[in-house]
Amino acid sequence: MNGMLLLEQAFRLKETERAPWVPFVGVHGGKLIGMDATTYLKSSQNIVDGISKAVELYRPDGIPVAFDLQIEAEILGCKLVWSKENPPAVVSHPLSNGTTLSSLRLPEKTDGRIPVVLDATVALRSRFPDLGLYGLITGPFTLALHLLGTDIFMKLFEDVDYVHQLMDFCTQVGIRYSELLLDAGCDVIAVVDPMTSQIDPHTFETFVTPYARKIFDSVRQREKFSSFFVCGHARQNIEVMCDCHPDNISIDENIPLDYVKEIALRKGISFGGNLKLTSVLLLGTEIDSRKDAVHCLDLGGKRGFILAPGCDLPMDTPAANIKAVAAMVYDKHARLVIRKMKPASSLQPMNLEGHLIEGKVIIDIITLDSASCAPCQYMVEAVTKASAIFGDKVIINEYKIKDIDGIRMMMALGVQNLPTTCINGRITFISHIPPRSEIEQAIREAL
User: Fold this and answer.
1) CATH 3.20.20.210 residue spans of the chain
2) What is the pLDDT of residues 379-404, one digit of tens each?
3) How far from 330 is each of 24, 144, 289, CA to CA, in Å?
4) Topology of 361-446 in CATH?
5) CA dihedral for 326, 331, 335, 337, sign (positive or negative)
6) Are the C-beta atoms of 62 and 22 separated by less than 8 Å?
7) Class of domain 3-338
8) Tens digits of per-residue pLDDT, 197-211?
């Protein structure tokens, strides 16, 4: 059976012979062909070569063409900082720097790096006719954050009409880009909106639901499929995500897979996830990867479930670990064997003795990586801005769980969800970007 046909059965909630397998290969494709992230993302041929290598190694049923949430933002005037190991990061917000919303225009197929993605899509469609190609667009709320910055959290209360106007524009951008991706040969439009993990269900229903529905409806009118990607501690929003009427929702390890399964199937929507991205796929062993894959396959079942990592694979993820996951997808006997094996690796929490300093406030922010994860980026940005008035009385540390010490610190502080801010060793803000005044008050109390 070809991959897209299997995915279609899952989207339609039909029983499948096995769960479809969709590794979210982004800049990891560059690693596979010996290329840094910047060089990789700026060339359609490089993307084709990287994805082709991933298809050869990982035997997927579907795969994204390009996992980059800054393509639309760059066209609309956001400045980017490029990296050798991650997609670029947004470092300026035009709507907070004097640009007016009315001056922004919808992107054309020749703008920015859109031609790079479209050319790669056409080539991959020709090379892999049976593979499910995912075209990724930046979700409207995350794009609004890119354009306006964290000021949007105040405007949600102080200038409701403006936020609705901004969300409507970002939605039109998403529809325009998704049409271009579908025309080029994509089968699935994935709306990637990680910043929605930072709002409550009521705010979601007010400012996200009506706009996300427009995108999913536009994809459905083209007789194609859609997926709603979110990362972080978004458990509170799973039901309202389903109510946006995508064909699929995809989540990361912050949310229990069985919880998502129950809600999604009750709502008549397929679901995907949630292989552990860093502690297992990036930093674990092949056995760890096999066991996590089997755990997800057993929980997800064969109706409506798509096996995938929680987000795009870190660049340096060992290919052997992803191949180990693929082996579990295709080999029933190997799954029986691996269920009886214990994980090969174990970590101990970091020793926090001497971590706190008398007369100082120590702020530890546990992230996936603020250079590549939008909620993590804006959490670090908000804390840094709020801390500035306290000068050297505040010390800010970012611990990225892309490395061992980050995971050990996460364990030591008892952090369960990302991103999380701890002040003087106490969990203070969990996957939530608070107003500046709230951060300042928390620092004052710690002082």
Assistant:
1) 3-338
2) 999 999 999 999 999 999 999 988 88
3) 18, 41, 14
4) Glutaredoxin (3.40.30)
5) negative
6) yes
7) alpha beta
8) 889 999 999 999 999
